[in-house]
Amino acid sequence: MQNDWKRMRFGDVVRFAEGLVDPRKRPYSDMVHLGPDNIAIGGARVVGKPMTAEALKLISGKYLFDSCAIVYSKIRPNLNKVCIPGFEGICSADMYPIWADENIVDAKFLCHVMRGPVFVRGAVATSTRTGMPKINRFDLENLSINVPTKQCQHRITELLDVWDDAVEKTTRLIVALEDRFGAFSLTLLRGRRRFSGDNSNWQSVSFNDVVQELTDRNSGRLGSDAVMGVNKLHGMIPMKDHVRAEDLSRYKIVPPNAFAYNPMRLNIGSLAMNMHGREVLVSPDYVAFAPREGHLNHRFFEHLRRSSIWSDFVSSAGSGSVRIRIYYEHLSAFSFHLPKLEVQSRIADMIDAAKREIDVHKEQVELMERQKRGLMQKLLTGEWRVPVRNSDVDAMAARVSEEAAQ
After folding, report:
1. Kindly report the CA angle at 31 between 88 and 16, in degrees rounded to 5?
2. Which residues lie below 8 Å from residue 172, measured CB to CB, with a gap of 6+?
3. Within 13 Å, how many C-alpha atoms sit on residue 279's CB side?
4. What is the DSSP letter of 97?
5. If one looks up domain 203-338 in CATH, what number appears?
6. What are the extents of the domains in the chain?
7. pLDDT tens-digit profile of 104-136?
8. Residue 254: in which H helix or E strand, if any?
9. What single-letter DSSP state applies at residue 134?
10. What separation in angstroms does the CA of 322 have from each of 148, 287, 314, 326?
């Protein structure tokens, strides 16, 4: 650490909010309320659409903050939810409004420090482990931070703000693209947007017309490494040892490009296509099916089942008053319009291309976040001298990119 940096106790450079206000009384009832869910994971910005205390019908005491305050969530500090909202409002008692001592540390710089990997590790290490992890005020005050000169703080803040701005703009672009993607894919899947020269009639088909149930059992063909579970977000993933049965003979075989789901979880979207390029196994309690060759393109169905066409049907299907179970026979009631096979393939190609564009931007955000974490590690500890020339900034960016890629 450089000689002009000081190691300081966090509580010595900040002031915490004291006392709670009643959200049922004015002016507090008219103020916007922030909860932990209103701050992005990783911090920096308010997310969602915060509402007033009156609209939320809040009754328990809240903290008051102003436009200069840093708001920090003490719940699950590993999520790193901290930002400067930039307006006056009230916040959950599970959050701390904090004001920097501007004679020592700039608020924006301090917010970057609190989002930095060193501070987060310290907060996580001292958070209580009974129930949901949280950090109390005493432990937060006793964390140590490195504080450089005010000039150095401002320069570091400028550099890190560049990364935040790039992430924020790309994130907004992703949101816009995803909104457009949903409408774009739906118009293609419904046949409302056609390819040039495609005047063919789309046939109304039932699920059973173009899909067949798979019931083949393993009977010793495949081993434990082939057993998969279905995850809503990640698709078919290896099943954990403690969940998997010792006897795999009754497990169902799912070939490449076929589908499987848990009948008790289809209503929440837990359906996946086998994209492993080899046969896999799923629980005997799962339902497995495959598109009929020459009738249904598996990629077309993969996009169809992610659309509202499928979800609207599933929401009304199944049986069971407590926990809905949707078996293969229930899917026979699903009907939809289907073009000829070559058109299905072209539609899937177009939707895949649109999705790839979104995925590329998501990868860019992940890379920028990784680069910024590396930069924060160096700058906020004083390990790297803050650059003062543009050429130095470019050189630093190149070093961060190289380390992030490793």
Report:
1. 45
2. none
3. 12
4. E
5. 3.90.220.20
6. 1-147, 203-338
7. 999 999 999 999 888 999 898 887 655 678 888
8. strand 252-254
9. B
10. 59, 20, 16, 13
Is 155:143 a contact under the CB 8 Å cutoff? no
Domains 1-147 and 203-338 alike in fold: yes
Q: Mean of the per-residue pLDDT values for the chain?
A: 87
- The SS3 call for residue 364 is helix
Residue 309, token pair as written in the block: 């066409």
Cα-Cα-Cα-Cα torsion 287, 291, 297, 300, nearest 10 degrees, comes to -30
pLDDT at 402: 59
pTM for the whole thing?
A: 0.70
What gap in Å lies between CA 315 and CA 80, rounded to an integer? 35
Could you report how far apart the first and last alpha carbons of the chain are, in Å? 25
Q: Specify burial of residue 25 (Cβ count, 10 A radius: 0-12, 13-18, 19+).
A: exposed
Per-residue DSSP letter, 73? E
CATH of domain 1-147: 3.90.220.20
Query: Please, which pLDDT band fits residue 141 given cuts at 50, 70 and 90?
Result: very high
